[in-house]
Amino acid sequence: MAGLAEAVGGPLGSRAGRHRWFTPMRVVLLLTAVCFALGMVQKAPCFDDTWNDADQRYAAMCYSDLPYLYTGRGFAELAWPYAEATAERYQVMEYPVAISYLAYGTAAATHLLLGTDDLAERSQRPVDALADPERLDAEVRWFVILSALALAAMTLGAAALLVRVNPGRPWDAVAFAVSPALALTGLVNWDLLAVLLVAGALWAWARERPLLTGALIGLGVAAKLYPLFLLGAVLVVCLRRRAWSDLAGASLAALVAWLALNLPAVWSSRSSWEVFWSFNSERGPDLGSLWLVWDQVTGSATSADVVNRVSLVLFALWCVGVLVVGLRGPSEPRLAQLAFLVVAGFLLVNKVYSPQYVLWLLPLAVIARPRWRDLLVWQAGEVLYFACVWWYLAGTLEAGSGGDSPFYWVAIVLRVAAELWLVAVVVRDVLRPERDPVGRPGQSRVTSSNDVVV
Protein backbone atom coordinates (compact mmCIF):
# COMPACT_ATOMS: atom_id res chain seq x y z
CA MET A 1 0.00 0.00 0.00
CA ALA A 2 3.00 2.32 0.36
CA GLY A 3 3.28 2.74 -3.41
CA LEU A 4 -0.41 3.58 -3.66
CA ALA A 5 -0.08 6.09 -0.81
CA GLU A 6 2.75 7.89 -2.62
CA ALA A 7 0.60 8.15 -5.77
CA VAL A 8 -2.07 10.11 -3.91
CA GLY A 9 0.11 12.41 -1.86
CA GLY A 10 2.75 10.41 -0.06
CA PRO A 11 2.91 8.15 2.98
CA LEU A 12 1.46 9.12 6.33
CA GLY A 13 3.70 11.67 8.06
CA SER A 14 4.77 11.65 11.70
CA ARG A 15 2.51 14.63 12.49
CA ALA A 16 -0.51 13.42 10.59
CA GLY A 17 -3.63 12.58 12.50
CA ARG A 18 -5.47 9.30 12.17
CA HIS A 19 -9.13 9.03 11.29
CA ARG A 20 -11.21 7.94 14.26
CA TRP A 21 -13.54 5.71 12.26
CA PHE A 22 -11.37 4.38 9.42
CA THR A 23 -9.26 2.06 11.50
CA PRO A 24 -7.27 -0.70 9.77
CA MET A 25 -9.81 -3.27 10.92
CA ARG A 26 -12.77 -1.38 9.50
CA VAL A 27 -11.03 -0.61 6.23
CA VAL A 28 -10.03 -4.26 5.74
CA LEU A 29 -13.54 -5.45 6.55
CA LEU A 30 -15.05 -2.91 4.15
CA LEU A 31 -12.70 -3.97 1.36
CA THR A 32 -13.46 -7.63 2.07
CA ALA A 33 -17.20 -6.99 1.89
CA VAL A 34 -16.84 -5.16 -1.43
CA CYS A 35 -14.64 -7.90 -2.87
CA PHE A 36 -17.04 -10.65 -1.82
CA ALA A 37 -20.01 -8.69 -3.16
CA LEU A 38 -18.25 -8.42 -6.52
CA GLY A 39 -17.87 -12.19 -6.41
CA MET A 40 -21.61 -12.54 -5.89
CA VAL A 41 -22.25 -10.25 -8.85
CA GLN A 42 -19.89 -12.35 -10.97
CA LYS A 43 -22.17 -15.36 -10.32
CA ALA A 44 -25.30 -13.41 -11.31
CA PRO A 45 -25.63 -14.80 -14.87
CA CYS A 46 -25.96 -18.32 -13.49
CA PHE A 47 -28.16 -17.20 -10.60
CA ASP A 48 -30.65 -15.63 -13.02
CA ASP A 49 -31.40 -18.99 -14.65
CA THR A 50 -30.78 -21.03 -11.47
CA TRP A 51 -27.75 -22.74 -13.03
CA ASN A 52 -30.03 -24.57 -15.48
CA ASP A 53 -28.09 -23.46 -18.57
CA ALA A 54 -25.20 -25.90 -18.86
CA ASP A 55 -23.37 -23.70 -21.38
CA GLN A 56 -23.86 -20.44 -19.46
CA ARG A 57 -22.14 -21.74 -16.32
CA TYR A 58 -18.88 -22.14 -18.27
CA ALA A 59 -19.20 -19.30 -20.77
CA ALA A 60 -19.87 -16.78 -17.98
CA MET A 61 -17.44 -18.56 -15.62
CA CYS A 62 -20.10 -18.57 -12.90
CA TYR A 63 -20.17 -22.26 -12.04
CA SER A 64 -20.82 -23.24 -8.41
CA ASP A 65 -21.24 -26.62 -6.74
CA LEU A 66 -23.86 -25.27 -4.32
CA PRO A 67 -27.04 -25.44 -6.44
CA TYR A 68 -26.28 -28.89 -7.80
CA LEU A 69 -25.61 -30.36 -4.38
CA TYR A 70 -28.92 -29.02 -3.05
CA THR A 71 -30.85 -31.26 -5.40
CA GLY A 72 -28.25 -33.98 -5.87
CA ARG A 73 -27.48 -34.83 -2.24
CA GLY A 74 -30.96 -34.86 -0.72
CA PHE A 75 -31.10 -31.37 0.77
CA ALA A 76 -34.25 -30.60 -1.24
CA GLU A 77 -36.07 -33.01 1.05
CA LEU A 78 -33.90 -32.09 4.05
CA ALA A 79 -32.39 -35.56 4.22
CA TRP A 80 -29.68 -36.03 6.86
CA PRO A 81 -26.42 -36.60 4.93
CA TYR A 82 -25.44 -39.55 7.13
CA ALA A 83 -28.70 -41.50 7.13
CA GLU A 84 -28.92 -44.89 5.46
CA ALA A 85 -32.15 -43.85 3.73
CA THR A 86 -30.34 -40.88 2.18
CA ALA A 87 -27.62 -43.13 0.79
CA GLU A 88 -30.28 -45.30 -0.84
CA ARG A 89 -31.83 -42.36 -2.74
CA TYR A 90 -28.91 -40.00 -3.35
CA GLN A 91 -25.19 -39.87 -3.88
CA VAL A 92 -23.57 -39.49 -0.48
CA MET A 93 -21.86 -36.18 0.30
CA GLU A 94 -18.22 -36.57 -0.71
CA TYR A 95 -17.03 -33.83 1.65
CA PRO A 96 -15.79 -33.85 5.26
CA VAL A 97 -18.44 -33.64 7.95
CA ALA A 98 -18.27 -29.93 8.74
CA ILE A 99 -19.13 -29.09 5.13
CA SER A 100 -22.04 -31.54 5.24
CA TYR A 101 -23.30 -30.03 8.50
CA LEU A 102 -23.06 -26.52 7.04
CA ALA A 103 -24.94 -27.51 3.89
CA TYR A 104 -27.61 -29.30 5.94
CA GLY A 105 -28.03 -26.31 8.25
CA THR A 106 -28.36 -23.97 5.28
CA ALA A 107 -30.92 -26.29 3.70
CA ALA A 108 -32.89 -26.30 6.96
CA ALA A 109 -32.85 -22.49 6.98
CA THR A 110 -34.02 -22.49 3.35
CA HIS A 111 -37.01 -24.72 4.12
CA LEU A 112 -37.85 -22.68 7.21
CA LEU A 113 -37.72 -19.43 5.24
CA LEU A 114 -39.88 -20.70 2.37
CA GLY A 115 -42.28 -22.63 4.55
CA THR A 116 -41.76 -26.04 2.97
CA ASP A 117 -44.37 -28.40 4.41
CA ASP A 118 -44.30 -31.35 2.01
CA LEU A 119 -41.00 -32.96 3.02
CA ALA A 120 -42.66 -36.23 4.02
CA GLU A 121 -44.38 -36.39 0.64
CA ARG A 122 -41.13 -35.61 -1.18
CA SER A 123 -39.44 -38.60 0.41
CA GLN A 124 -42.01 -40.82 -1.35
CA ARG A 125 -41.62 -39.23 -4.78
CA PRO A 126 -39.01 -39.99 -7.44
CA VAL A 127 -35.82 -38.01 -6.96
CA ASP A 128 -36.27 -36.24 -10.30
CA ALA A 129 -39.82 -35.11 -9.46
CA LEU A 130 -39.67 -33.89 -5.87
CA ALA A 131 -41.59 -30.67 -6.47
CA ASP A 132 -42.82 -28.23 -9.09
CA PRO A 133 -39.73 -27.04 -11.07
CA GLU A 134 -40.42 -23.36 -10.34
CA ARG A 135 -40.76 -24.11 -6.64
CA LEU A 136 -37.54 -26.11 -6.65
CA ASP A 137 -35.70 -23.35 -8.51
CA ALA A 138 -36.82 -20.86 -5.86
CA GLU A 139 -35.44 -23.14 -3.14
CA VAL A 140 -32.14 -23.51 -4.97
CA ARG A 141 -31.78 -19.75 -5.32
CA TRP A 142 -32.46 -19.18 -1.63
CA PHE A 143 -30.11 -22.00 -0.68
CA VAL A 144 -27.38 -20.25 -2.66
CA ILE A 145 -28.27 -16.85 -1.17
CA LEU A 146 -28.14 -18.16 2.40
CA SER A 147 -24.92 -20.07 1.68
CA ALA A 148 -23.39 -16.91 0.22
CA LEU A 149 -24.35 -14.88 3.30
CA ALA A 150 -22.84 -17.52 5.58
CA LEU A 151 -19.66 -17.65 3.51
CA ALA A 152 -19.50 -13.85 3.48
CA ALA A 153 -19.64 -13.81 7.28
CA MET A 154 -16.85 -16.41 7.40
CA THR A 155 -14.75 -14.35 4.99
CA LEU A 156 -15.18 -11.23 7.13
CA GLY A 157 -14.22 -13.28 10.17
CA ALA A 158 -11.10 -14.57 8.44
CA ALA A 159 -10.12 -11.04 7.41
CA ALA A 160 -10.59 -9.75 10.97
CA LEU A 161 -8.36 -12.51 12.33
CA LEU A 162 -5.66 -11.88 9.73
CA VAL A 163 -5.59 -8.21 10.69
CA ARG A 164 -4.48 -9.26 14.16
CA VAL A 165 -1.94 -11.97 13.30
CA ASN A 166 1.14 -9.74 13.02
CA PRO A 167 1.18 -6.97 15.66
CA GLY A 168 1.92 -3.63 14.07
CA ARG A 169 1.11 -4.89 10.53
CA PRO A 170 -2.69 -4.88 10.25
CA TRP A 171 -2.53 -3.77 6.61
CA ASP A 172 -1.07 -7.10 5.51
CA ALA A 173 -4.64 -8.41 5.48
CA VAL A 174 -5.54 -6.00 2.66
CA ALA A 175 -4.04 -8.49 0.19
CA PHE A 176 -6.62 -11.01 1.40
CA ALA A 177 -9.45 -8.48 1.35
CA VAL A 178 -8.97 -7.43 -2.29
CA SER A 179 -7.83 -10.76 -3.70
CA PRO A 180 -9.26 -11.43 -7.19
CA ALA A 181 -9.08 -15.16 -6.40
CA LEU A 182 -11.35 -14.59 -3.40
CA ALA A 183 -13.93 -12.80 -5.56
CA LEU A 184 -13.83 -15.40 -8.32
CA THR A 185 -13.76 -18.64 -6.29
CA GLY A 186 -15.37 -17.82 -2.96
CA LEU A 187 -18.74 -19.21 -4.02
CA VAL A 188 -17.58 -22.25 -5.96
CA ASN A 189 -17.81 -24.44 -2.85
CA TRP A 190 -17.71 -24.16 0.95
CA ASP A 191 -13.92 -23.92 1.25
CA LEU A 192 -14.16 -20.59 3.08
CA LEU A 193 -15.23 -22.45 6.21
CA ALA A 194 -11.79 -24.03 6.37
CA VAL A 195 -10.19 -20.68 5.47
CA LEU A 196 -11.83 -19.08 8.52
CA LEU A 197 -10.53 -21.82 10.81
CA VAL A 198 -7.01 -21.61 9.35
CA ALA A 199 -7.00 -17.85 9.86
CA GLY A 200 -8.14 -18.49 13.43
CA ALA A 201 -5.28 -20.94 13.95
CA LEU A 202 -2.75 -18.36 12.73
CA TRP A 203 -4.23 -15.78 15.08
CA ALA A 204 -4.26 -18.18 18.06
CA TRP A 205 -0.64 -19.20 17.47
CA ALA A 206 0.39 -15.53 17.29
CA ARG A 207 -1.25 -15.12 20.72
CA GLU A 208 0.78 -18.08 22.04
CA ARG A 209 -2.29 -20.23 22.61
CA PRO A 210 -1.30 -23.70 21.35
CA LEU A 211 -4.41 -25.46 22.66
CA LEU A 212 -6.72 -23.10 20.80
CA THR A 213 -4.49 -23.36 17.75
CA GLY A 214 -4.81 -27.14 17.79
CA ALA A 215 -8.57 -27.03 18.34
CA LEU A 216 -9.06 -24.72 15.37
CA ILE A 217 -6.84 -26.93 13.22
CA GLY A 218 -8.91 -29.96 14.23
CA LEU A 219 -12.13 -28.18 13.33
CA GLY A 220 -10.54 -27.14 10.05
CA VAL A 221 -9.62 -30.75 9.23
CA ALA A 222 -13.28 -31.63 9.79
CA ALA A 223 -14.08 -29.16 6.99
CA LYS A 224 -11.17 -29.83 4.59
CA LEU A 225 -8.17 -32.10 4.94
CA TYR A 226 -5.47 -29.50 4.29
CA PRO A 227 -5.54 -27.71 7.71
CA LEU A 228 -3.96 -30.91 9.06
CA PHE A 229 -0.72 -29.80 7.43
CA LEU A 230 -0.52 -26.82 9.77
CA LEU A 231 0.47 -29.30 12.45
CA GLY A 232 3.60 -29.94 10.39
CA ALA A 233 4.43 -26.26 10.65
CA VAL A 234 3.73 -26.36 14.39
CA LEU A 235 6.09 -29.35 14.63
CA VAL A 236 8.99 -27.44 13.04
CA VAL A 237 8.50 -24.39 15.25
CA CYS A 238 8.25 -26.54 18.38
CA LEU A 239 11.39 -28.47 17.41
CA ARG A 240 13.28 -25.21 17.22
CA ARG A 241 11.87 -24.01 20.52
CA ARG A 242 12.02 -27.44 22.16
CA ALA A 243 8.44 -26.68 23.19
CA TRP A 244 7.26 -30.27 23.56
CA SER A 245 4.26 -29.37 25.71
CA ASP A 246 3.01 -26.91 23.09
CA LEU A 247 3.35 -29.56 20.38
CA ALA A 248 1.57 -32.20 22.46
CA GLY A 249 -1.18 -29.79 23.49
CA ALA A 250 -1.86 -28.57 19.97
CA SER A 251 -1.89 -32.11 18.58
CA LEU A 252 -4.21 -33.43 21.28
CA ALA A 253 -6.57 -30.48 20.97
CA ALA A 254 -6.71 -31.00 17.19
CA LEU A 255 -7.58 -34.67 17.63
CA VAL A 256 -10.29 -33.97 20.20
CA ALA A 257 -11.88 -31.24 18.07
CA TRP A 258 -11.80 -33.43 14.97
CA LEU A 259 -13.38 -36.35 16.81
CA ALA A 260 -16.07 -34.14 18.31
CA LEU A 261 -17.34 -33.21 14.84
CA ASN A 262 -16.84 -36.59 13.20
CA LEU A 263 -18.33 -38.94 15.78
CA PRO A 264 -21.98 -37.94 15.18
CA ALA A 265 -21.58 -38.77 11.49
CA VAL A 266 -19.82 -42.06 12.26
CA TRP A 267 -22.60 -43.05 14.66
CA SER A 268 -25.25 -42.15 12.07
CA SER A 269 -23.69 -44.13 9.24
CA ARG A 270 -20.07 -45.16 9.14
CA SER A 271 -20.36 -46.23 5.50
CA SER A 272 -21.56 -42.76 4.47
CA TRP A 273 -18.86 -41.13 6.59
CA GLU A 274 -16.20 -43.19 4.83
CA VAL A 275 -17.29 -41.98 1.38
CA PHE A 276 -15.07 -38.88 1.62
CA TRP A 277 -12.01 -41.05 2.17
CA SER A 278 -12.84 -43.64 -0.48
CA PHE A 279 -13.89 -41.02 -3.04
CA ASN A 280 -10.56 -39.24 -2.81
CA SER A 281 -8.49 -42.43 -2.88
CA GLU A 282 -10.30 -43.85 -5.92
CA ARG A 283 -10.28 -40.81 -8.22
CA GLY A 284 -7.59 -40.59 -10.90
CA PRO A 285 -5.82 -37.56 -12.43
CA ASP A 286 -8.29 -34.70 -12.54
CA LEU A 287 -8.69 -31.02 -13.41
CA GLY A 288 -5.85 -28.62 -12.72
CA SER A 289 -3.21 -31.20 -11.85
CA LEU A 290 0.13 -31.89 -13.49
CA TRP A 291 -0.99 -35.51 -13.53
CA LEU A 292 -3.73 -34.59 -16.00
CA VAL A 293 -1.22 -32.78 -18.19
CA TRP A 294 1.04 -35.83 -18.16
CA ASP A 295 -1.77 -38.20 -19.10
CA GLN A 296 -3.08 -36.02 -21.91
CA VAL A 297 0.34 -35.14 -23.36
CA THR A 298 1.60 -38.72 -23.29
CA GLY A 299 -1.70 -40.47 -23.96
CA SER A 300 -1.32 -42.40 -20.71
CA ALA A 301 -4.01 -43.46 -18.30
CA THR A 302 -2.31 -43.37 -14.92
CA SER A 303 -4.26 -45.39 -12.40
CA ALA A 304 -5.51 -43.94 -9.15
CA ASP A 305 -3.33 -46.38 -7.22
CA VAL A 306 -0.15 -45.23 -8.97
CA VAL A 307 -1.04 -41.56 -8.51
CA ASN A 308 -1.78 -42.14 -4.82
CA ARG A 309 1.54 -43.85 -4.15
CA VAL A 310 3.73 -41.51 -6.18
CA SER A 311 1.98 -38.39 -4.86
CA LEU A 312 2.45 -39.62 -1.30
CA VAL A 313 6.17 -40.18 -1.85
CA LEU A 314 6.61 -36.78 -3.52
CA PHE A 315 4.69 -35.02 -0.77
CA ALA A 316 6.69 -36.79 1.93
CA LEU A 317 9.93 -35.66 0.26
CA TRP A 318 8.54 -32.12 0.01
CA CYS A 319 7.72 -32.16 3.75
CA VAL A 320 11.24 -33.32 4.55
CA GLY A 321 12.50 -30.39 2.50
CA VAL A 322 10.30 -27.96 4.45
CA LEU A 323 11.58 -29.49 7.69
CA VAL A 324 15.20 -28.99 6.61
CA VAL A 325 14.55 -25.41 5.50
CA GLY A 326 12.72 -24.66 8.73
CA LEU A 327 15.49 -26.04 10.92
CA ARG A 328 18.37 -24.50 8.93
CA GLY A 329 16.98 -20.97 8.93
CA PRO A 330 19.15 -18.55 10.95
CA SER A 331 16.13 -17.61 13.05
CA GLU A 332 12.81 -19.21 13.83
CA PRO A 333 10.49 -19.19 10.79
CA ARG A 334 6.97 -17.89 11.14
CA LEU A 335 4.14 -20.41 11.28
CA ALA A 336 2.47 -18.98 8.17
CA GLN A 337 5.64 -19.40 6.14
CA LEU A 338 6.02 -23.08 7.00
CA ALA A 339 2.31 -23.79 6.64
CA PHE A 340 2.24 -22.12 3.23
CA LEU A 341 5.15 -24.24 2.03
CA VAL A 342 3.57 -27.50 3.20
CA VAL A 343 0.11 -26.79 1.76
CA ALA A 344 1.62 -25.56 -1.53
CA GLY A 345 3.57 -28.81 -1.83
CA PHE A 346 0.41 -30.83 -1.29
CA LEU A 347 -1.44 -28.94 -4.03
CA LEU A 348 1.42 -29.15 -6.50
CA VAL A 349 1.66 -32.95 -6.36
CA ASN A 350 -2.03 -33.64 -5.80
CA LYS A 351 -4.09 -35.40 -8.48
CA VAL A 352 -6.73 -32.68 -8.53
CA TYR A 353 -6.28 -28.91 -8.20
CA SER A 354 -9.74 -27.35 -8.37
CA PRO A 355 -10.04 -23.57 -8.99
CA GLN A 356 -11.21 -22.83 -5.45
CA TYR A 357 -8.20 -24.55 -3.88
CA VAL A 358 -6.41 -21.22 -4.25
CA LEU A 359 -8.39 -20.22 -1.15
CA TRP A 360 -6.45 -22.80 0.86
CA LEU A 361 -3.26 -20.83 0.28
CA LEU A 362 -4.69 -17.33 0.42
CA PRO A 363 -4.60 -16.56 4.19
CA LEU A 364 -1.24 -18.31 4.51
CA ALA A 365 0.28 -16.49 1.54
CA VAL A 366 -0.72 -12.96 2.57
CA ILE A 367 0.84 -13.47 6.01
CA ALA A 368 3.84 -15.49 4.81
CA ARG A 369 4.85 -13.04 2.07
CA PRO A 370 3.12 -9.64 2.42
CA ARG A 371 4.58 -8.12 -0.74
CA TRP A 372 2.29 -6.95 -3.53
CA ARG A 373 4.63 -7.95 -6.36
CA ASP A 374 4.93 -11.58 -5.34
CA LEU A 375 1.29 -11.96 -4.39
CA LEU A 376 0.17 -10.45 -7.70
CA VAL A 377 2.44 -12.76 -9.70
CA TRP A 378 0.85 -15.72 -7.93
CA GLN A 379 -2.69 -14.37 -8.27
CA ALA A 380 -2.18 -13.72 -11.99
CA GLY A 381 -1.49 -17.41 -12.50
CA GLU A 382 -4.61 -18.31 -10.56
CA VAL A 383 -6.86 -15.91 -12.46
CA LEU A 384 -5.55 -17.19 -15.78
CA TYR A 385 -6.26 -20.74 -14.73
CA PHE A 386 -9.74 -19.82 -13.45
CA ALA A 387 -10.71 -18.55 -16.89
CA CYS A 388 -9.09 -21.41 -18.78
CA VAL A 389 -10.63 -24.25 -16.77
CA TRP A 390 -14.15 -23.07 -17.64
CA TRP A 391 -13.23 -22.55 -21.28
CA TYR A 392 -11.73 -26.03 -21.26
CA LEU A 393 -14.90 -27.55 -19.84
CA ALA A 394 -16.95 -25.62 -22.39
CA GLY A 395 -14.83 -27.09 -25.19
CA THR A 396 -13.68 -23.71 -26.49
CA LEU A 397 -9.98 -24.48 -25.94
CA GLU A 398 -9.94 -27.54 -28.17
CA ALA A 399 -7.65 -27.49 -31.18
CA GLY A 400 -9.28 -26.71 -34.51
CA SER A 401 -9.27 -30.39 -35.39
CA GLY A 402 -10.81 -31.28 -32.03
CA GLY A 403 -9.24 -33.44 -29.36
CA ASP A 404 -6.72 -32.20 -26.81
CA SER A 405 -6.49 -28.66 -25.46
CA PRO A 406 -2.81 -27.62 -25.33
CA PHE A 407 -3.68 -24.13 -24.10
CA TYR A 408 -5.25 -25.68 -21.02
CA TRP A 409 -1.99 -27.50 -20.35
CA VAL A 410 -0.17 -24.17 -20.63
CA ALA A 411 -2.58 -22.60 -18.14
CA ILE A 412 -1.91 -25.40 -15.64
CA VAL A 413 1.86 -25.09 -16.05
CA LEU A 414 1.76 -21.28 -15.71
CA ARG A 415 -0.36 -21.60 -12.59
CA VAL A 416 2.19 -24.00 -11.10
CA ALA A 417 5.08 -21.72 -12.14
CA ALA A 418 3.44 -18.71 -10.46
CA GLU A 419 2.93 -20.73 -7.28
CA LEU A 420 6.53 -21.94 -7.35
CA TRP A 421 7.63 -18.30 -7.61
CA LEU A 422 5.89 -17.57 -4.33
CA VAL A 423 7.30 -20.76 -2.80
CA ALA A 424 10.81 -19.69 -3.81
CA VAL A 425 10.60 -16.25 -2.23
CA VAL A 426 9.13 -17.67 0.99
CA VAL A 427 11.97 -20.21 1.19
CA ARG A 428 14.44 -17.39 0.63
CA ASP A 429 12.82 -15.39 3.43
CA VAL A 430 13.21 -18.33 5.81
CA LEU A 431 16.87 -18.86 4.92
CA ARG A 432 17.62 -15.13 4.75
CA PRO A 433 15.37 -13.57 7.40
CA GLU A 434 16.61 -10.07 6.60
CA ARG A 435 14.58 -10.33 3.37
CA ASP A 436 11.39 -11.18 5.24
CA PRO A 437 9.04 -8.15 5.10
CA VAL A 438 7.76 -8.98 8.58
CA GLY A 439 11.21 -9.44 10.08
CA ARG A 440 12.13 -10.76 13.51
CA PRO A 441 12.52 -8.94 16.84
CA GLY A 442 15.80 -7.05 16.98
CA GLN A 443 16.66 -7.84 13.36
CA SER A 444 17.20 -5.44 10.47
CA ARG A 445 15.44 -6.20 7.21
CA VAL A 446 15.31 -5.11 3.60
CA THR A 447 12.32 -2.85 2.89
CA SER A 448 10.53 -2.21 -0.37
CA SER A 449 7.79 0.07 -1.64
CA ASN A 450 5.67 -2.98 -2.51
CA ASP A 451 5.41 -4.09 1.10
CA VAL A 452 1.75 -4.50 2.04
CA VAL A 453 1.91 -1.57 4.47
CA VAL A 454 0.93 2.08 4.65
UniProtKB/TrEMBL annotation:
Look up and give the membrane topology term. Multi-pass membrane protein
Q: Name one Pfam family in it.
A: GT87
Give the coiled coil ranges: none
Transmembrane parts of this sequence: 142-163, 175-205, 211-235, 247-267, 311-329, 335-354, 375-394, 406-427
Q: Where in the cell is it found?
A: Cell membrane
**Any idea which UniProt keywords this protein has?**
Cell membrane, Membrane, Transferase, Transmembrane, Transmembrane helix
Family of this protein:
Belongs to the glycosyltransferase 87 family.
Annotated protein name in UniProt? Glycosyltransferase 87 family protein
